[in-house]
């Protein structure tokens, strides 16, 4: 379902692969089926033990939905048949824990550690390298767990289906796997029975890290407090202080009742035949079970409160955030509809947008424009992903003295909405957003459908009603135009709603210490209660586990694609290049379903240092000020009424074959329905005419909001920041990236906020606008549908008009900037941060994309990740993740994610080549093929129609260059891997390193490395013991 309110911070889905380094780019497509095999079933008919209870054509998405139920187990099955080669399969369960031991989360990890048919350690990670899946994951939400994957290759699809189904229905759930993935006590020195005992375990560390992200902590506590009675009162991912109460037996019991077919929801999507799925499911699994009433997993609606409640919690200090006295947050929330009430939930989604988002919404006007905060916090929005849906409005970076005022503003704002309703054109712009989102089609359509439907399906809501979006939208249009109807809704859900929670969160200097003390106490109690036999067992387990982790296993039982199954079926996109005015234009006709897409890059190389520093802020405010024709409220209305809204991204990209050259600019994108193209182009022209930045009050407010938003998410993506920071030691290009996108930008902006007058800022951003917003500084790419050819002329005219104002007649190609290598010795940066787990990175500059060694190094990253880094950094040393990747500019990156170690991990990185020398026997045909396959997974990702040819536009990466790269990947030999490892990754090569976390510096430094410490502006406020 569409919403501009995304990413509610509290609905933390714990995913198996949260380290998002794989699969970003690029092109498609494998053996595409010529057409779709229609399922030979209809409502009332049976097939392979399933009865089809409902079948309906959904015209808005051009697909047919089949709803089936297994005759014996009553397993629910939803199939969405659509002519789309990116097929999806998922098996999910309603998992509703009654405690915070993290049972569903640890179970999700442990079922993927080996099963009856596939008794190997971690078949999930192993299959990552044996498949061409375009998506694979396992996710635990507050009340369900599901295992989805996507593939365009039918052989691959069947392989993965077998492994996934066996994992969930017939897992081994071995005790050692529970100890590895969940929690255990272990000797610091495995060989020494007298050495200290510590807590270890993948999920244990993962969850310790999860709550370091303040917004996640706030979200979790808010949900637990506003919905205290049932399963939502607990931490489904696991509270680190409760996880050690979980036993292996409890885990097994939980599996037997919750992962029962009668509690399962199975989903398939795409053009592969349904019949094969049903047949296999029934014969291999479901026919062997009897029915188990899934009443134990039901969520009963939360009993409503008779009076509002208040609550206060504390959090860690953000050392990289604003002044301590302002690091407080507030959230005010109401429990709303039952999410099985499809229309009501749909309506409330629209209502929330009207109330919260953009300068025309009531809360933006009353709360944000008051400038007493750093803007909305991550809880703000409408969460319809759990049974009792919740509306929240909250602010971050608030002074405590403003808490009362904020509460009273929220109340008066609701009264105002009740009295005055919404403006008609504001309503129209919100409705337009819904309409456009139905037309805009991503290659992940089937997967998005699953994510959207799962929360509703989980509580037995009516899926077919939710799929018929046009009907819902029709009713919404009518209802939103009835003021009396809206009055009733506001009255029921807000004014007379006593189920309201106000929660305050304040940083506490001893927050980390308090957790450490509680952890130490829990550890001490555990140890005190150990019997002699327990202690002996711990000692044995530690050694057994280490042995099991090193054991060589026979992986031949796992299915794997063969080289013949892989076909390059992708052709060069048909692109037209022309020049309009002085703007180079790339045009692509594609099946965009009646939507037009425009992207433009403006060069920023002409900016001076001060201006460059404020470029990230400039892109944040570019569509938020008055323009020549409109004030900022009118502009926002117009943008959302005619387009999908602007996106502005920094564009710093390296030359694919000239080492040391890069382009620097700003990428502007937007799309609209074909019929709105003229209007969208007018808005672009308006922005290019330069906004008026004179409104100093607004400037100050946006500056506060921008700075406040910067540190949110740093800990969730800590490995990305660590790699970026390490790379800043390598070249001036990466130093520039770090300044604009990394932690350096966070610190620069805090500095600017403290030391600059608002007039200075206005001058600088105005200067940026004058320099970059020019026709002759632009190159553009345009995707349009075949039905609408005349719109090409419109874009041409738009570009020519833009250039009229300029005197320059030069056609803007790409202005390359020289990058200098600055790494002259081994260096390290320690970003000191008060978090219980670390992020480590090491980076080594290698070769450009078009160098023949690039493909070899690329394959090497996958080989090292699965054979060396994953087993040692994750399985043995307890980090949540670890691996290697190669950036486009040829920097070889090592990283670890949520890692209890630091120097130990850096040593693992340093010893790569030594390990390789000792393990050349692992470089065999199968392992080499698997490493290649996982690179092809990235390269052969399906590409959206509106992204065709975009690599050429953005990076100068043509289809031919891409194809050569793909051929080179396939041609890599065993000797190549060993050779490039020796050549580029020897332990004495110059490298940059970075550790984010609180490890002591003396532990990081090695003799020949020069380390520096980076401290955040609020460093002194944290007390350490
Ligand atoms: Zn996890």
Q: Gist?
A:
The chain contains 36 helices and 30 strands. The radius of gyration is 28 Å and the shape is globular.
Based on helices, strands and strand pairing, what is the structural class?
A: alpha+beta
Specify the number of helices: 36
> Nearest-angstrom radius of gyration?
28 Å
Bin the helical content: 40-55%
Q: Main β-sheet, in a few words?
A: 10 strands, mixed
Bound molecules: zinc ion
What fraction of residues sit in β-strands?
A: 15-25%
Distance between the termini: 48 Å
State mean pLDDT (0 to 100 scale).
91
Number of distinct beta strands: 30
Note the overall shape. Answer: globular
Low-confidence stretches: 1-12, 17-34
Report on the structure:
With 1025 residues, the protein is α+β, with helices and mostly antiparallel strands. It has 36 helices and 30 strands. The strands form five sheets. Strands 1, 2, 3, 4, 5, 6, 7, 8, 9 and 12 form a ten-stranded mixed beta sheet that branches. α29 packs across α34 and α31 runs antiparallel to α35. The longest helix has 25 residues. The radius of gyration is 28 Å and the shape is globular. It starts with 13 loop residues before the first strand and ends in an 11-residue tail after the last strand. The site of zinc ion has 5 residues, from α1 and α5.
């Amino acid at each position: 379902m569409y919403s501009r309110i995304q990413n509610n911070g509290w609905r933390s889905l714990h995913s198996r692969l949260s380290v998002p380094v794989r699969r970003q780019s690029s092109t498609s497509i494998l053996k595409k089926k010529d057409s779709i095999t229609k399922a030979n079933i209809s409502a009332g008919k049976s097939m392979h033990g399933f009865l089809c209870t409902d079948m309906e054509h959904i015209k808005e998405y051009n697909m047919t939905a089949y709803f089936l139920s297994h005759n014996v187990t009553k397993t629910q099955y939803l199939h969405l048949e659509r002519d789309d080669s990116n097929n999806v399969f998922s098996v999910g369960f309603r998992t509703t824990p009654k405690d915070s031991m993290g049972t569903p989360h640890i179970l999700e990890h442990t079922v993927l550690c080996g099963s009856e048919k596939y008794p190997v350690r971690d078949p999930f990670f192993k299959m990552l390298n044996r498949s061409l899946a375009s998506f694979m994951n396992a996710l635990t939400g507050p009340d369900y767990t599901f295992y989805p994957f996507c593939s365009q290759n039918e052989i691959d699809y069947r392989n993965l289906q077998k492994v996934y189904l066996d994992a969930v229905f017939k897992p081994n759930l071995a005790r050692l796997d529970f100890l590895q993935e969940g929690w255990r006590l272990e000797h610091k020195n495995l060989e020494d029975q007298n050495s200290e005992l510590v807590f270890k375990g993948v999920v244990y560390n993962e969850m310790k890290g999860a709550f370091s992200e303040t917004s996640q902590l706030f979200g979790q506590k808010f949900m637990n407090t506003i919905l205290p009675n049932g399963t939502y009162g607990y931490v489904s991912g696991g509270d680190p202080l409760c996880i050690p109460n979980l036993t292996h037996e409890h885990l097994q019991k939980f599996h037997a009742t919750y992962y029962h077919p009668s509690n399962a929801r199975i989903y398939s999507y795409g053009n592969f035949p349904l019949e094969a799925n049903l047949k296999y499911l029934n014969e291999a699994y479901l026919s062997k079970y009897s029915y188990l009433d899934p009443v134990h997993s039901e969520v009963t609606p939360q009993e409503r409160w008779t009076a509002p409640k208040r609550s206060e919690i504390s959090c860690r200090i953000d050392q990289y955030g604003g002044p301590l006295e302002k690091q407080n947050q507030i959230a005010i929330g109401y429990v709303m509809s039952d999410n099985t009430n499809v229309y009501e939930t749909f309506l409330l989604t629209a209502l929330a947008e009207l109330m919260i988002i953009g300068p025309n919404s009531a809360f933006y006007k009353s709360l944000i424009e008051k400038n007493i905060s750093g803007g909305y916090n991550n809880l703000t929005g409408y969460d319809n992903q759990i049974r009792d849906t919740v509306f929240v409005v909250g602010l971050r970076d608030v002074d405590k003295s403003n808490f009362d005022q904020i509460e009273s503003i929220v109340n008066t704002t609701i009264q105002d909405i009740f009295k005055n309703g919404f403006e008609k054109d504001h309503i129209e712009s919100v409705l337009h957003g819904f309409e456009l989102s139905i037309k805009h089609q991503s290659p992940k359509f089937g997967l998005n459908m699953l994510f959207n439907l799962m929360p509703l399906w989980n509580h037995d809501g009516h899926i077919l009603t939710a799929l018929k979006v046009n009907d819902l939208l029709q009713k919404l249009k009518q209802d939103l135009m009835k003021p009396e109807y809206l009055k009733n809704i506001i009255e029921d859900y807000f004014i007379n709603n006593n189920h309201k929670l106000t929660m305050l969160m304040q940083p506490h200097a001893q927050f980390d210490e308090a957790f450490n003390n509680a952890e130490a106490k829990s550890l001490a109690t555990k140890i005190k209660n150990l019997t002699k036999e327990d202690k002996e067992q711990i000692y044995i387990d530690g050694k057994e586990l280490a042995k099991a982790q090193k054991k060589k296993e026979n992986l031949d039982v796992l299915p794997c694609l063969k080289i013949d199954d892989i076909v390059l079926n992708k052709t060069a996109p048909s692109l037209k290049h022309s020049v309009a005015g002085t703007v180079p234009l790339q045009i692509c006709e594609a099946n965009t379903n009646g939507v037009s897409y425009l992207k433009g890059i403006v060069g920023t190389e002409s900016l001076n240092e001060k201006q460059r520093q404020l470029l990230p802020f400039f892109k944040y405010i570019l569509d938020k000020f008055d323009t020549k024709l409109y004030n900022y409220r009118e502009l926002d209305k117009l943008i959302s009424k005619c387009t999908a809204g602007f996106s502005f991204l920094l564009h710093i990209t390296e030359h694919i074959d000239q080492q040391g050259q890069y382009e620097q600019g700003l990428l502007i994108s937007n799309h609209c329905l074909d019929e709105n193209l003229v209007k969208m182009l007018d808005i672009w022209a308006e922005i290019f005419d330069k906004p008026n930045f004179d409104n100093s009050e607004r400037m100050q407010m946006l500056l506060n909001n921008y700075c406040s938003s910067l540190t949110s998410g740093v800990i969730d993506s800590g490995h990305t920041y660590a790699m970026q920071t390490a790379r800043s030691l390598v070249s001036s290009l990466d130093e520039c990236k770090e300044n604009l996108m990394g932690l350096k930008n966070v610190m620069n902006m805090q500095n600017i906020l403290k030391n600059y007058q608002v007039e200075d800022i206005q001058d600088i951003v105005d200067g940026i606008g004058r320099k970059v917003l020019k026709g002759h500084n632009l190159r553009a790419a345009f995707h349009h549908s075949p039905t609408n050819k005349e719109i090409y002329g419109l874009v041409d005219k738009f570009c020519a008009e833009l250039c009229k104002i300029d005197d320059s007649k030069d056609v803007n190609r790409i202005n390359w900037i020289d990058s200098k290598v600055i790494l002259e010795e081994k260096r390290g940066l320690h970003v000191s941060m008060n978090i219980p787990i670390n992020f480590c990175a090491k980076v080594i500059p290698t070769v450009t994309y078009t160098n023949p060694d690039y493909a070899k190094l690329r394959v090497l990253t996958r080989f090292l990740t699965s054979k060396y880094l994953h087993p040692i950094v994750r399985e043995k040393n307890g980090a949540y993740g670890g691996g290697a990747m190669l950036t486009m500019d040829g920097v070889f990156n090592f990283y670890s994610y949520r890692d209890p170690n630091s120097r130990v991990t850096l040593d693992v990185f340093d010893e790569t080549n030594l390990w390789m020398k000792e393990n050349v026997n692992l470089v065999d045909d199968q392992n080499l093929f698997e490493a290649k396959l996982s690179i092809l997974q990235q390269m052969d990702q399906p590409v959206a129609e509106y992204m065709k040819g975009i690599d050429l536009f953005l990076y100068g990466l043509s289809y031919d260059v891409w194809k050569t790269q793909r051929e080179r990947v396939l041609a890599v030999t065993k000797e190549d891997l060993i050779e490039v490892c020796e050549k580029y990754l020897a332990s004495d090569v110059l490298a940059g390193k970075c550790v984010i976390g609180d490890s002591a510096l003396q532990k990081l430094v090695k003799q020949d490395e020069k380390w520096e410490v980076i401290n955040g502006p609020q460093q002194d406020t944290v007390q350490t013991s």
